[in-house]
Write a structure and sequence with these properties.
Structural class: mainly alpha
Number of helices: 2
Strand content: under 5%
Length: about 70
């Protein structure tokens, strides 16, 4: 389970966008450590609303960590 620090209010959306951007790196590290701990496991990611930004960016970052030779230059 992974969560990020949302302020849970439509009026706080700009602050949440900022936190989502920062949280992507932490999610990538979490995902990478999970893949290393249980390499044979299938991992399902379920995200809602702004959490999709965290998940998509995190998966992108983690894929570059896992496959550094496939990183675009």
């Amino acid at each position: 389970f992974y969560t990020w620090p949302s302020r849970a209010s439509v009026w706080k959306y700009p602050a949440d966008e900022n936190e989502a951007g920062k949280s992507a790196q932490y999610f990538a590290e979490f995902l990478h450590s999970l893949r290393m701990a249980i390499p044979e496991a299938d991992i399902a990611i379920v995200a809602h609303s702004m959490g999709n930004r965290v998940a998509i960016a995190g998966v992108d970052i983690e894929s570059r960590i896992a496959n550094p030779t496939n990183t675009p230059k």
